[in-house]
Specification:
- This protein is mainly alpha-helical.
- It folds into two domains: about 45 residues, Homeodomain-like (Arc Repressor Mutant, subunit A, Orthogonal Bundle); about 150 residues, Tetracycline Repressor, domain 2, CATH 1.10.357.10.
- The protein is built from eleven helices and no strands.
- The chain is globular, with a radius of gyration of 26 Å.
Protein backbone atom coordinates (compact mmCIF):
# COMPACT_ATOMS: atom_id res chain seq x y z
CA UNK A 1 0.00 0.00 0.00
CA UNK A 2 1.37 3.43 -0.98
CA UNK A 3 2.17 5.77 1.86
CA UNK A 4 -0.21 8.72 2.29
CA UNK A 5 1.32 12.07 1.42
CA UNK A 6 2.12 14.25 4.40
CA UNK A 7 -0.44 16.91 5.22
CA UNK A 8 0.55 20.31 4.01
CA UNK A 9 0.02 23.47 5.97
CA UNK A 10 -2.66 25.95 4.97
CA UNK A 11 0.07 28.49 4.09
CA UNK A 12 1.78 26.00 1.77
CA UNK A 13 -1.57 25.10 0.12
CA UNK A 14 -1.90 28.80 -0.68
CA UNK A 15 1.57 28.71 -2.14
CA UNK A 16 3.09 30.97 0.51
CA UNK A 17 5.40 30.19 3.39
CA UNK A 18 4.38 31.20 6.92
CA UNK A 19 6.42 34.15 8.16
CA UNK A 20 6.86 35.41 11.70
CA UNK A 21 5.16 38.71 12.47
CA UNK A 22 7.60 41.59 12.35
CA UNK A 23 7.28 44.76 14.39
CA UNK A 24 7.61 47.92 12.36
CA UNK A 25 9.99 50.34 14.02
CA UNK A 26 8.97 53.96 14.13
CA UNK A 27 11.80 55.95 15.76
CA UNK A 28 9.81 59.19 15.80
CA UNK A 29 6.84 57.58 17.55
CA UNK A 30 9.12 55.73 19.98
CA UNK A 31 10.97 58.91 20.89
CA UNK A 32 7.70 60.75 21.43
CA UNK A 33 6.32 57.95 23.64
CA UNK A 34 9.45 58.15 25.78
CA UNK A 35 9.17 61.92 25.96
CA UNK A 36 5.50 61.76 26.98
CA UNK A 37 6.20 59.13 29.61
CA UNK A 38 9.16 61.07 30.98
CA UNK A 39 7.07 64.23 31.20
CA UNK A 40 4.56 62.46 33.44
CA UNK A 41 7.25 60.87 35.63
CA UNK A 42 9.34 64.02 36.03
CA UNK A 43 6.25 66.12 36.72
CA UNK A 44 5.10 63.63 39.35
CA UNK A 45 8.39 62.88 41.08
CA UNK A 46 10.93 65.46 39.94
CA UNK A 47 14.31 64.70 38.41
CA UNK A 48 15.61 62.95 41.50
CA UNK A 49 12.55 60.82 42.13
CA UNK A 50 11.80 59.70 38.58
CA UNK A 51 13.29 56.37 37.53
CA UNK A 52 14.37 55.37 34.05
CA UNK A 53 12.82 51.92 34.59
CA UNK A 54 9.44 53.49 35.28
CA UNK A 55 9.71 55.77 32.25
CA UNK A 56 10.57 52.79 30.06
CA UNK A 57 7.63 50.79 31.36
CA UNK A 58 5.22 53.70 30.86
CA UNK A 59 6.56 54.26 27.31
CA UNK A 60 6.43 50.54 26.48
CA UNK A 61 10.10 50.76 25.55
CA UNK A 62 13.31 49.51 27.12
CA UNK A 63 16.06 51.40 28.90
CA UNK A 64 18.43 50.85 26.01
CA UNK A 65 16.14 52.84 23.72
CA UNK A 66 15.96 55.71 26.21
CA UNK A 67 19.73 55.99 26.35
CA UNK A 68 19.91 55.57 22.58
CA UNK A 69 17.62 58.54 21.92
CA UNK A 70 18.55 60.80 24.81
CA UNK A 71 21.93 59.70 26.13
CA UNK A 72 21.24 60.11 29.84
CA UNK A 73 18.53 60.82 32.37
CA UNK A 74 19.67 64.45 32.64
CA UNK A 75 19.50 64.95 28.90
CA UNK A 76 16.08 63.36 28.84
CA UNK A 77 14.97 65.86 31.48
CA UNK A 78 16.31 68.70 29.34
CA UNK A 79 14.40 67.35 26.35
CA UNK A 80 11.23 67.30 28.46
CA UNK A 81 11.80 70.90 29.54
CA UNK A 82 12.43 72.04 25.97
CA UNK A 83 9.30 70.26 24.80
CA UNK A 84 7.24 71.86 27.57
CA UNK A 85 8.47 75.36 26.77
CA UNK A 86 8.05 74.75 23.05
CA UNK A 87 4.43 73.76 23.61
CA UNK A 88 3.44 76.89 25.51
CA UNK A 89 5.40 79.20 23.20
CA UNK A 90 3.77 77.59 20.16
CA UNK A 91 0.32 77.96 21.72
CA UNK A 92 1.02 81.65 22.38
CA UNK A 93 1.99 82.22 18.76
CA UNK A 94 -1.19 80.47 17.62
CA UNK A 95 -3.25 83.16 19.40
CA UNK A 96 -2.55 85.45 16.42
CA UNK A 97 -2.38 88.48 18.72
CA UNK A 98 -0.98 90.84 16.10
CA UNK A 99 -4.40 90.95 14.45
CA UNK A 100 -6.17 91.99 17.65
CA UNK A 101 -6.47 95.48 19.07
CA UNK A 102 -3.69 96.06 21.65
CA UNK A 103 -5.97 95.96 24.71
CA UNK A 104 -7.74 92.83 23.51
CA UNK A 105 -4.41 91.21 22.62
CA UNK A 106 -3.10 91.76 26.14
CA UNK A 107 -6.31 90.49 27.72
CA UNK A 108 -6.16 87.41 25.53
CA UNK A 109 -2.53 86.71 26.47
CA UNK A 110 -3.29 87.12 30.19
CA UNK A 111 -6.31 84.82 29.98
CA UNK A 112 -4.38 82.29 27.92
CA UNK A 113 -1.54 82.15 30.46
CA UNK A 114 -4.00 81.48 33.28
CA UNK A 115 -5.84 78.73 31.43
CA UNK A 116 -2.64 77.12 30.18
CA UNK A 117 -1.21 76.88 33.69
CA UNK A 118 -4.55 75.62 34.99
CA UNK A 119 -4.85 72.93 32.30
CA UNK A 120 -1.16 71.92 32.29
CA UNK A 121 -0.15 71.49 35.93
CA UNK A 122 2.80 69.37 34.77
CA UNK A 123 4.33 72.50 33.26
CA UNK A 124 4.35 74.22 36.64
CA UNK A 125 5.89 71.26 38.44
CA UNK A 126 8.58 70.85 35.77
CA UNK A 127 9.53 74.53 36.12
CA UNK A 128 9.58 74.16 39.90
CA UNK A 129 11.85 71.14 39.60
CA UNK A 130 14.29 72.93 37.30
CA UNK A 131 14.42 75.91 39.65
CA UNK A 132 15.44 73.55 42.45
CA UNK A 133 18.38 72.61 40.22
CA UNK A 134 19.14 76.32 39.58
CA UNK A 135 18.39 75.95 35.85
CA UNK A 136 21.35 73.61 35.44
CA UNK A 137 19.70 71.88 32.49
CA UNK A 138 18.22 74.92 30.75
CA UNK A 139 21.69 76.49 30.68
CA UNK A 140 22.61 73.75 28.20
CA UNK A 141 19.63 74.40 25.93
CA UNK A 142 20.16 75.86 22.48
CA UNK A 143 16.47 76.54 21.86
CA UNK A 144 14.80 77.91 24.99
CA UNK A 145 16.46 81.32 24.70
CA UNK A 146 15.17 81.69 21.15
CA UNK A 147 11.67 80.78 22.29
CA UNK A 148 11.67 83.55 24.90
CA UNK A 149 13.08 86.02 22.40
CA UNK A 150 10.01 85.35 20.24
CA UNK A 151 7.71 85.92 23.22
CA UNK A 152 9.49 89.14 24.15
CA UNK A 153 9.10 90.44 20.61
CA UNK A 154 5.41 89.58 20.58
CA UNK A 155 4.71 91.42 23.86
CA UNK A 156 6.84 94.39 22.80
CA UNK A 157 4.84 94.71 19.59
CA UNK A 158 1.57 94.72 21.54
CA UNK A 159 2.89 97.44 23.86
CA UNK A 160 4.21 99.54 20.99
CA UNK A 161 0.92 99.34 19.12
CA UNK A 162 -0.94 100.31 22.27
CA UNK A 163 1.38 103.25 22.89
CA UNK A 164 0.93 104.51 19.32
CA UNK A 165 -2.84 104.34 19.74
CA UNK A 166 -2.57 106.25 23.00
CA UNK A 167 -4.10 103.50 25.17
CA UNK A 168 -0.88 102.19 26.80
CA UNK A 169 1.87 104.01 28.64
CA UNK A 170 5.20 104.32 26.87
CA UNK A 171 8.40 102.70 28.05
CA UNK A 172 6.97 99.51 29.59
CA UNK A 173 9.56 96.72 29.66
CA UNK A 174 8.05 93.68 27.84
CA UNK A 175 10.16 91.27 29.90
CA UNK A 176 8.95 92.74 33.20
CA UNK A 177 5.36 92.67 31.96
CA UNK A 178 5.62 89.04 30.89
CA UNK A 179 7.10 88.09 34.27
CA UNK A 180 4.15 89.78 35.96
CA UNK A 181 1.59 88.05 33.72
CA UNK A 182 3.20 84.71 34.50
CA UNK A 183 3.64 85.43 38.21
CA UNK A 184 0.06 86.39 39.06
CA UNK A 185 -1.16 83.06 37.69
CA UNK A 186 1.81 80.91 38.65
CA UNK A 187 1.89 81.84 42.33
CA UNK A 188 -1.84 81.38 42.80
CA UNK A 189 -1.86 77.89 41.29
CA UNK A 190 1.40 76.57 42.75
CA UNK A 191 0.31 77.71 46.22
CA UNK A 192 -3.31 76.65 45.95
CA UNK A 193 -3.08 74.08 48.75
CA UNK A 194 -1.35 76.23 51.33
CA UNK A 195 -3.31 79.29 50.19
CA UNK A 196 -6.62 77.53 50.73
CA UNK A 197 -5.61 76.89 54.35
CA UNK A 198 -4.10 80.30 55.01
CA UNK A 199 -6.93 82.31 53.49
CA UNK A 200 -9.63 79.84 54.61
CA UNK A 201 -11.24 79.57 51.20
CA UNK A 202 -11.15 76.99 48.42
CA UNK A 203 -8.90 78.65 45.87
CA UNK A 204 -9.76 76.01 43.28
CA UNK A 205 -13.53 76.35 43.49
CA UNK A 206 -15.02 77.37 40.10
CA UNK A 207 -16.21 80.72 41.45
CA UNK A 208 -12.79 81.43 42.99
CA UNK A 209 -11.01 80.60 39.74
CA UNK A 210 -13.31 82.88 37.77
CA UNK A 211 -12.81 85.69 40.27
CA UNK A 212 -9.04 85.26 40.17
CA UNK A 213 -8.89 85.40 36.37
CA UNK A 214 -10.91 88.61 36.34
CA UNK A 215 -8.55 90.07 38.96
CA UNK A 216 -5.49 89.07 36.89
CA UNK A 217 -6.82 90.74 33.76
CA UNK A 218 -7.76 93.91 35.65
CA UNK A 219 -4.33 94.02 37.28
CA UNK A 220 -2.48 93.82 33.96
CA UNK A 221 -4.72 96.32 32.20
CA UNK A 222 -4.39 98.86 35.04
CA UNK A 223 -0.63 98.40 34.89
CA UNK A 224 -0.28 99.26 31.22
CA UNK A 225 -3.07 101.76 30.55
CA UNK A 226 -2.13 105.37 29.97
Amino acid sequence: MAAKPAKTSRAKRRGTAARPATRIRDPIATRQRILDAATKEFARLGLGGARVDAIAARAKANKRMIYHYFGSKSRLFLAVLESAYSDIRGAEQALDLEHLEPEQALRTLTEFTWHYYLNHPEFLTLVNSENLHKARHLKQSRTVGEMFSTLETMVRNILNRGARKGVFRKGIDPVQLNITIAAISYYYLTNRYTGSIIYQRDLMAPAALKQRLAFNVETIMRLVRK
